[in-house]
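seq as requested:
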Amino acid sequence: MKTILVPTDFSSNANNALKYANAFAQATDNKIVLLHSYIPILGKYDRIPEIVDEENIRVKKESQKNLEILCKKYVKGTCDALLITRNPIETILEVSQKRKFSLIIMGTHGVSGLMQLLFGSNTSGVISKSTVPVLAIPQRYRFRKINTIVYASDLKNTINELKHIIPFAKEFDATIEIVHLDYGYNTTDDEKQLLEKKIKSLSYKKINFIEKKATLELPMADQLKKYLVKHKPQILVMFPEEKSWFDKIFIGSKTEEMANKLKLPLLSIRKTIVKQK
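struct tokens:
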């Protein structure tokens, strides 16, 4: 049995992500570890140390109790509660790597959803550094059977990246749609034909290659968004890295508009993970 790490800050968005994680774990025979991490209150010269210590003890007890309540309330299977007093992002990254979690499921925060995910939230910090795949769940999104996974690809390392998506798709017998926005350069017809041939040679057959003609007159984010709205997949997969195609899509265009309207889970797998294989 594999294990999913679900960080929580006890917010409604984190609770929603836990509900999603529970349904996901039930469907895939995974167990859940619920993690809360926080920075303890530090004593200052104008505070009484004993009072600071008492407050930290109170917060720790209350946090542990809340973790146990959430496990009982939202998780039907195995759920372990883990409380660590340390910087949340550092803790999530360290724990997920040391304990070899298969997946991290987190909620996005704020009315702008993915905007907060990309800029400044704990989810953003985890996605930018995690060596474990991160599945970010938008506000109020409810789990539904995963039939279609859209993989937004720049066609630079498609086969190797697919090898990281296929095990995930197999869990649900889902179709993978490789969506490529074609601007008429960088990839030749021969290269595309060779790619399609390699895709057909893979053991997993539920993979479709979809090429959409793109225009420089519209931001890439808007063009991808139109496809997602029309076809309604259950998950979008992307492979971010510094100054990558991922960044070009979400940064420097109508990012806020995209963030407000993209209402499906985003599975992020770092390109550096693929390169290490």
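DSSP finds eleven helices and ten strands in the chain.
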